[in-house]
Amino acid sequence: MAINLLLITLLCILISTVVSQPGSPPFPQELINAIIGPTPSPSSSSIPPTPTPSIPQTPLVPALFVIGDSSVDCGNNNFLGTFARADHLPYGRDFDTHQPTGRFCNGRIPVDYLALRLGLPFVPSYLGQNGRVEGMIQGLNYASAGAGIIFTSGSELGQHVSFTQQVQQFTDTYQQFILSLGEQAAIDLISNSVLYISIGINDYIHYYLRNVSNVQNLYLPWSFNQFLASTLRQEIKNLYSINVMKVVVIGLAPIGCAPHYLSQYRMKDGQCVEEINDTVMEFNFVMRYMIEELREELPDSNIIFCDVFEGSMDIIKNSEHHGLNATADACCGLGEYKGFVMCLSPEMACSNASNHIWWDQFHPTDAVNAILADNVWNGLHTKMCYPMNLEEMVAFDS
């Protein structure tokens, strides 16, 4: 009976995903205003308010652009036919508006916190904007849940915008800036803005670890990592050719500690799956070395690599220090570690996510995103970025 109910629920979600016409996500300035606006819903009244970092009076950079996957998707997948959508509660219940926006979290994602640090509004989704330059000039978010470096990664979930397609969307935006602002103004805007890239995890979750197309027999983990890094390297060089100078590249998180794999591998006492984490660490090592090479190869560029694995493992190992006492179980889901089934309804969620590391089977809570964003910004909790953090990058180029 329970299985039948689950199948019916998933079928309803698929139907609503394909035929529904989602409304436009809130305009970013309204999201900022919402900090002092709507009254919290009863379900989130027990949640402590999200601490707001100090906001500069004037922006430190012209704009923040975001490319990536569900770790930074702010609503692009709301406009696609896919299972990978977070446009329903309890997603967003602890967000500033207490409504789902398409973020795969109970609240904010890391780029929300970093936008405020830079003196910018929350970055709007590319597919949700109306095409006017005024709505794009302080940044756009192209990220798409399910996307990977490999074009077909995550395709079993439905539509998504791959890494290469997102780069093309960014290029189209740049061309629109040239037409609207003039070439020199567009160059100044892009070269002084920050591009944040967070992608690659789906190439493991939905491709390598699932052994799609017998990939594990074709590539050992080291070779697969090298392949992904070389693809990412080429796209960064393509972006550099259109005057992208400031790039933050985010490494992969320790998905071997994610509730989904704890459940799948039947881990005892919440112990992480080391063989998965070893592959992730290897990828991050390759990426950090590749970024060092690119910094030397591309004159006037300032590219930094932030190892989110290091920051995340610090949170897991020192969870009590960060006020987090639920380190293995997701706040929302079903099954062992609540990692067997994704977060589908408010009834599946815990009452208070602020003491959890994991929100659902793969994604961290708002509380963890805030800590990781602090680390990207200035290494507040643990050094994560090399050779400098984002605050130093902005100060260095100012």
From TrEMBL:
Q: Which GO terms describe its molecular function?
A: hydrolase activity, acting on ester bonds
InterPro entries assigned to the protein according to its UniProt record, in alphabetical order: GDSL, GDSL_Est/Lipase, SGNH_hydro_sf, SGNH_plant_lipase-like
Which GO biological process entries does UniProt record here?
Answer: lipid catabolic process
Q: Does the keyword Signal apply?
A: yes
Identify the stretch annotated as signal peptide in this record. Answer: 1-20
Q: Name one Pfam family in it.
A: Lipase_GDSL
Keywords carried by this UniProt record:
Hydrolase, Lipid degradation, Lipid metabolism, Signal
Q: Which family does it belong to?
A: Belongs to the 'GDSL' lipolytic enzyme family.
Query: Know the name of this protein?
Result: GDSL-like Lipase/Acylhydrolase superfamily protein
